Amino acid sequence: MTDTVAKQLLNDPRVHKARRLLHEALHDHRANIKQPKPADADLAVEYQHLLEQFAKLRGGKLYYPYLGSGAGNGALVELADGSVKYDFITGIGVHAWGHSHADLLDASITAALSDTIMQGNLQQDVASVELAQMIVTAANARGAK
Q1: Which of 13, 32, 83, 100 could form a disulfide with 39 if both were Cys (CB 3.0 to 4.6 A apart)?
Q2: Burial class of residue 77, CB neighbours in 10 A (0-12, 13-18, 19+)
């Protein structure tokens, strides 16, 4: 039996190699975020400009002057000024697995290579069946029939 183009893409050796390389890079860079640290003086001016630009764009200052760099390690998050802080609120829940989590990288790679799951009435894909099965299984495990 022939696989679909989508399965062929996800199973392509180049995709597996790229995934492995991305995991290695994530691991290596996360390792540099070990503990809280103060801001890097070389980044302070640029960071202040970003805060001011964002305040203009959104029509007011941030309540907390906090702009993440996009990297972290577990409960630690790096800010765009190079400082590292503990994220005690997990980004209000969006980082419940921790910052820069390897499983989220995997899910993001798969999502980037796949169509978006559409739960409307016109177009579905295979992931829709998998998602529906997960929901029904979870509901049944909690007493739904």
Answers
A1: 83
A2: buried
The model's pLDDT over 44-103, given as tens digits with 9 standing for 90+, comes to: 999 999 999 999 999 999 998 889 999 999 999 999 999 999 988 867 776 777 888 899
d(CA 1, CA 4): 10
Sign of CA dihedral 67, 105, 100, 138: positive
Cα–Cα distance, 79 to 87 (Å, whole number): 11
Residue 119's pLDDT is what? 60
131, 117 contact by CB (below 8 A): yes
Percent of the chain's residues with pLDDT above 90: 66
Would you give the distance in Å from CA 140 to the centre of its chain?
30
